[in-house]
Amino acid sequence: MKYFFSSMALGTLVFFSACQSGNTAQTADNPNAPHPTPAQHEHAAASSPAAAPAMAKEAAPSMPDFKFYKVKSGIGFTKADIPAGKNTAFILFDPSCGHCQHEAGLLAKNYAAIKDVNLYFISMNDPALMASFLETFGKELVDKPNVEVLYDRNQEFIQKFHVPQQFPANYVYGADGQLKNSWDGEKEIGFVLAEFTR
């Protein structure tokens, strides 16, 4: 089992490195350009010689238990840490993805509309790559009480929430913890804001 997680971690790094080097210029110039998918990563991990843990093929209908880590402090973050009584949006992203950068920028410019939504940017990338993501692409979201960048050290998202086809992947859960909507890839900002707040 230890070997598998090492292989899976290596596969994740290779996947994200390929994503970063192969498409950074393309996605920066054209946010509508195709981007390597999390599903391609899943396929690479599934070909490992060790038995793979189950991957979530459908979006989790209710918010699963998890343990992620705050990028700035390294402190663990679980479902119990989410403020109650609000919608919660999880955005699975890759810091080098032009679509993810664009969505973060649009959300930042529309912060007033989402100030009452718990907003969590989650990635399996090295925290060093994630540390300046909001400062670079979503300055207005930095240090907001309802916004956090989280490191998925143990790849729990793709095991418990969902394996999306494209980044950014958005998952909106209501105050009751039930899934309201999810989608893969970049959408028009009006749609995103409406789904985050409905």
From TrEMBL:
<feature type="region of interest" description="Disordered">
    <location>
        <begin position="25"/>
        <end position="51"/>
    </location>
</feature>
<dbReference type="InterPro" id="IPR036249">
    <property type="entry name" value="Thioredoxin-like_sf"/>
</dbReference>
<feature type="domain" description="Thioredoxin">
    <location>
        <begin position="48"/>
        <end position="198"/>
    </location>
</feature>
<keyword id="KW-0732">Signal</keyword>
<dbReference type="InterPro" id="IPR013766">
    <property type="entry name" value="Thioredoxin_domain"/>
</dbReference>
<dbReference type="Pfam" id="PF00578">
    <property type="entry name" value="AhpC-TSA"/>
</dbReference>
<protein>
    <recommendedName>
        <fullName>Thioredoxin domain-containing protein</fullName>
    </recommendedName>
</protein>
<dbReference type="InterPro" id="IPR000866">
    <property type="entry name" value="AhpC/TSA"/>
</dbReference>
<feature type="signal peptide">
    <location>
        <begin position="1"/>
        <end position="21"/>
    </location>
</feature>
